[in-house]
Fold:
Amino acid sequence: MVIGCSGGDAETHANFSARFKLNFPLIPDTDFKVLELYGARRMKTFLGKSFLGIVRSTFWIDAEGIVRKIWHSVNPKGHADEVLAAMDGE
Structure:
């Protein structure tokens, strides 16, 4: 099962999901508790300025709840294939 999570609200998620025709749920985390728990919200730097931001990450969590693999700073292009390849290798 695939689940997405970000700091956006439910309306933002609904619009994003419709725009990109996603076939999995998106969970709003407007207080950033889940994102911080998984280390996906941290200090970033852009154009010499530091800010607290979201690091696009993927967590492969198996049926027993064990984190099998973590990808940080992912690029959406080709990432699904990379994840599927890792899962096929198991």
The mean pLDDT is 92. The domain at 4-88 is CATH 3.40.30.10 (Glutaredoxin). The chain has one domain: 4-88.
